[in-house]
Give the backbone structure.
Amino acid sequence: MAAAFAARGFDVVGVDVNKRSIDLINQGKAPVQETDLEETIAANKERIRATSSHEDAVLNSDISFVIVPTPSDERGSFSLQYAKWAFKEIGKALGKKKGYHNVVLTSTVLPGSTRQALVPILERESGKSAGKDFGVCYSPEFIALGSIINDFLHPDFHVDR
């Protein structure tokens, strides 16, 4: 997603917990194997950088896309463990941000999870109110490995207002 946004001309700050991934992205290399990813990152290296700091990313961007694993838990539901951690870190950073910021969850979660479990974390950690001080939306991405870049840049359809 970061590579695709950069390919469309946006400056992108990626956050990762994996130092190797951060280093590779900052060198203009792909941290994972995916068709066209290495070329897309290399061609847009000046618009992509990676960090381990949520604060750095939030303070230097307008939108945060949360893309974390949501593995099935013991009940068959999607685990929010990683999403909760990311929202907590983003919330802390939002508390320091002067302007409006949007948070977009793209990971797969059950209906109501964003509103009931994740937005309260952002509000508690930031001391701000969703809708008034920052925006939140859920926009799941359904990806097909091997064609992620192409599918993202050339969707089968899109909705206009």
